[in-house]
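Hi there,

I know you've been waiting on this one. I reran it after we fixed the sequence typo, so this is the corrected version. Both the input and the resulting structure follow.
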Amino acid sequence: MKLFNTLTRKLETFQPIKAPRVTFYHCGPTVYWTQHIGNLRGMTMADLIRRTLIYFGYEVNFVRNYTDVGHLVSDADTGEDKMEKASRREQLAPDQIAKKYIDIFENDTRQLNILPPDQTPRASRHVPGMIAMIKTLLEKKHAYITDLAIYFDVSTFSRYNALNKQKPDLNIPGAGKGKVADSQKKHNADFALWFFKRGEHANAVQTWETPWGVGFPGWHIECSVMAEKFLGETIDIHMGGIEHISIHHTNEIAQSESVSGKPFVRYWLHNEHLVLKSGKMAKSQGTGYSLLQLIEKGYDPMDLRYFFLTAHYRSRQEFSWEALTQAKSSLDKLKRIVLAFKKQTQRTALSADKLAKIDEYRSRFTQAIGEDVQIPQALAIAWEMLKSSIPSQDKLDLLFQFDQVFGLKLSEVSQGPIAPEIIELARQRQLARSKSDYQRADQLRKEIENKGYLVEDQPNGYQIKPKI
């Protein structure tokens, strides 16, 4: 199996530290709002990679965190804590805000059939560990204290830009990350490990006592602490969105490796964004669609999951209602095929040629997902297999194997009651036929077919059945 490692910018053969065990840390959401479908795409991409690892026989220990403190609006060291901003917006305590949006997020991921993590640590529950790590960084001279904060000194870590490949001038304002709001900062690129309850954060709500003063942690320190606690000093895979490369993940590496003296992560994976034709998907612009909004428009969560399968995790994917409708149509067709095959219980004896064909499709599927998790290619192979001459029951077996990675719950597909709308269209068609209005009857037949059903005329009436 090969994965594209952002650290080396190369496709590398995956070799976990202690095979078959794999340690996998995924940057989870900041739980201050309902996550839009762009965020949920990132969660689904990580799920597809995790499912692929399991398909290859690995035992994956998967950790996804919740950020419920310390994430400033700018993603760097300026601005307001997102949780406190949400707290004022909704007149709820930060802990209540976190619980509300964690519950919504977990319901969304459950509906998208995303496998639950083995651990879901919350940042606010691991502040003592953060304080301990900051203490070590201070002792090792990788950090320093000002009146307003404790900063990591990036000049003490020679590999600071190994991941983001940037070359900022540490001393020129505006050339590094964020702006210099603290005149005591040594370098413009230094980042906060801890903010004191002073200056612009004098009214901070979520604060803790430390040996250096009352305050709250910076955003980046949490993942270093939680990854080490649950997965060890060096982990196999760390994943997040591409927006984390330049700041968040770069800072995690600096913190963790400065403390342990060991490589923090072997394989860095990053997913691209879900975008609109008009640009970035964002709540502020009214385009941060939630899963609930899609459901209210008549889409099933699995329609969205199928849509996500049609683009590679490292490719930017453009969302439109037309594209989602097309994904829904493809998934509906797939379900109808499954239903038709389920009804065919008789197995056909397999010739050597058919056995070879089955092995070929399985091998091609495995090769596709093994080459940096090429899900769109694997999906195309599945469709090709369904159109082949392989017997129906063997097609179904293969499809269910493939769906261990796709996660579309195809084995659970069952014939539900036919929608009243379809029944009424079929009744109107029968009435038109009785009046010899065959043009109207034909129009209604086509309308029924467009909705995924067939009407078969029989001597004593008609039968409605799903269209393959």
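Quick highlight: Confidence is low (pLDDT under 50) at residues 174-180.

Best,
R. S.
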